[in-house]
Amino acid sequence: MNLDIVQSPGTFLKHMLGHVPNEEVLHNYESWWISQGKDTSAAVDRAGTPWVKMFDQRGERIDEILFPPDYRKMLLKGYRTGVIWRAFEESLAASFVMGYVTSYFDPGLYCPYTVSLATAASVDKYAPASVREKYLQALLQKDDSVWQGATWMTEIGGGSDLGTHVGTAATHVEGDRWHLNGDKYFCSNAGAELAVVAARPADAPAGVRGLALFLVPRQRQDGSLNYTLRRLKDKIATRSVPTGEIELRHSEGYLLGEAQNGIYLILEVLNLSRVANSIGSIALAQRAFSDAYTFARDRVAFGKPVLDQPLMRRQFEDRAAGLRSGFALAWETVQLAQETWREPGPRYSDRFHLFRIITHLAKYWTAEFAVQTAKWAMEVNGGLGTLAEFGVERWLREAIILDIWEGPPHRQILDGMEVIERKGAGGLLFDHLAPYADEAELTELRARVDSHLMLPHAEREANAEAVFCALADFTAKALLVKLQHSQSEIVEM
Questions:
Q1: Is 250 among the domain residues?
Q2: 145 found inside a domain
Q3: Cα–Cα distance for residue pair 64/55, rounded to 1 Å
């Protein structure tokens, strides 16, 4: 691979896919980022946690989040260009390539787009007709009137064990209308016009089976605030998305789908966000790689560029190979999501379970790769890599959050192994990879997974990481072969 292509997200996408959806639109979007967006992004990162204007001059609660002046211009650029509406009018691929370019320049900004897409998907798929008609189009606007979405599940006890820690209570009012009372602790895109929220109806059973999913508008029917912002989080990065604590006090909400199926709807939201996280992680890794490449190419030590020294050259080649494999793994989740994202739960097809296992593998592999690549990029830059003024250290700060968002590595391992054990996803995965993988390696890994599943529960969980890591590596390499085959077919056509 010619390493020069890593300096442009659009060029890398073209290299990997052969054909990029809306190539001219994407090129213009990237050009905007280079000429305007990246400076705004850097300013937002330097500014840190934004300020909240809690009251207006009449003393009414407004909870307005105040960013640097050009932030909203940067945010709206993606919405207008189509990071959300293209998913519905064209394809998920058209949305996710825009997300890739966004995350190359600002991974934090990709979060509002991600949760807005998940919100729109939930409204489109599960909202009652009257609610869908009232709210969906607001999320799909192509101008500055567009509404934003958010996905708020986590409470102070944590996000992995929702069945235990979701204390938000839902009380039925009439029809599809409910009142929600509780506190959400990690709320990305605080201030959004709409949010999908996990809560427990009063008569629901304990555990995850008792959770339901609700759509909560920012404003009540009378125009007053429907939820309030307790505070914003002071995070190490992703400062382009405001993350805060939300208070729900008799907040008006609308039930999405059937109450007893809430956990399935919640997992659909998480899985769609994990696809975006995988795409964003690889884009971030490319950006870190690009910054390292530019420095190593131009930096002269011991009489020649750092890039031309054998050990450094080998490291770049190995990272480039990982970048390509990781992209193939992430892109497969996009392809499978396109097939299954409109499929209603909870009776899902085998194709959906295949999507689930590859999504867990991709989220695990790509986020870890992003962290390690960002760390390595700092090392390539040496002492200069630790200085905020040059921006390289930012990618490690951003990557650490991507590694934790939507479930840290151990959560992906446990949930991924569960879908293998309970839904037969291991067999689905191996059958899917068989045309592109070494037969002997596939047979060996299949036997390893089967043996692992025979272990006692505690031992099976304790030893899951090594098996899952091997499975992720194997899947990434096989899917790179698959992507290369697809490219060849496009050329032949």
A1: yes
A2: no
A3: 8
Q: Of 220, 235, 261, which marks where a domain is finished?
A: 261
pLDDT digits (tens, 9 = 90+) for 369-386: 999 999 999 999 999 999
**Residue among 188, 2, 21 at smallest CA distance from 92:** 21
Could you give the 3-state DSSP secondary structure of residue 114?
helix
pLDDT in tens, 413-461: 999 999 999 999 999 999 999 999 999 999 999 999 999 999 999 999 9
Domain that holds residue 31: 3-139
119 closest CA partner among 281, 268, 339: 268
Report pLDDT digits (tens) over 130-184.
999 999 999 999 999 999 999 999 999 887 888 898 999 999 999 889 999 999 9
DSSP per residue, 290-355: HHHHHHHHH-EETTEEGGGSHHHHHHHHHHHHHHHHHHHHHHHHHHHHHHHTTPPSSS--HHHHHH
Judge if 354 and 319 occupy the same domain.
yes
Please calculate the CA angle 136-137-139 and round it to the nearest 5 degrees. Answer: 70
Does a structural domain hold residue 146?
no
CB neighbours (10 Å) of residue 266? 23
The reply to whether 110 falls in a domain is: yes
**Cβ atoms of residues 9 and 96 within 8 Å:** no
- Residue 277 to residue 235: CA distance in whole angstroms: 18
Q: Are 296 and 306 in contact (CB under 8 A)?
A: yes
Q: Measured between alpha carbons, how far is 13 from 104 in angstroms, rounded to an integer? A: 12
Distance CA 366, CA 338 (A): 20
